[in-house]
Amino acid sequence: MQDISLAQYISKQREKVGLSQTGLSKKSNLPLSVIEDIESGKELFLPSTHRQQLAKGLKLLPMDIKKYEKVIDSSFDTDMELVEFMRRAILGGETDELRCPICGSELTTKIVKMYDLEDNLVLHPKANCKKCPFQIK
């Protein structure tokens, strides 16, 4: 178990190599908003591509970064009807009252814009709890 968070680790390593957040963004070929989200603690788990790009920019191995990501405990069962309700609420901008179904804490939400193979915009609602492993992917 690590004593520091992913946000603290990335920030510390970035400073160690003498980069600003903008510099790391350029070196790792990631949007500045992704770096800001990671260092502010909004992102607790990274897609493997982001982990690889960050590792390259910070001159680390991807597994060095993975050690600091929050471990997901998938032993709980989530009500899929509730998850669908939450997805619709996120897409509708009704996120003020959304709470984690496991611990009751406030959720961090966002809408990711992606494009399908026919270049149609597809919106994906995402949410995660900062206090427990609950997330909507």
Q: What tags apply to this protein structure?
A:
alpha+beta, 3-stranded antiparallel β-sheet
Describe, in short, the structure shown:
This protein has 137 residues and is an alpha+beta fold. It has helices at 6-16, 21-28, 32-39, 48-58, 62-66, 80-91; strands at 107-115, 121-129, 135-136.
Coarse morphology: globular
Strands, count: 3
Oligomeric state as shown: single chain
Major sheet details? 3 strands, antiparallel
Major beta sheet, strand line-up: 1-2-3
Q: What's the rounded overall pLDDT mean? A: 87
- Low-pLDDT runs: none
Total count of helical runs of at least 4 residues? 6
Summing up helix and strand content along with how strands pair, one would put the structural category as alpha+beta
Element-by-element helix/strand order: HHHHHHEEE
Distance between the termini: 25 Å
Percent of residues in helices comes to 40-55%
Q: Could you walk me through the main structural features you see in this protein, from its secondary elements to its overall organization?
A:
This protein has 137 residues and is of the alpha+beta class. The chain contains six helices and three strands, in the order ααααααβββ. A hairpin with a 5-residue loop joins strand 1 and strand 2. The model has no long low-confidence stretch (mean pLDDT 87).
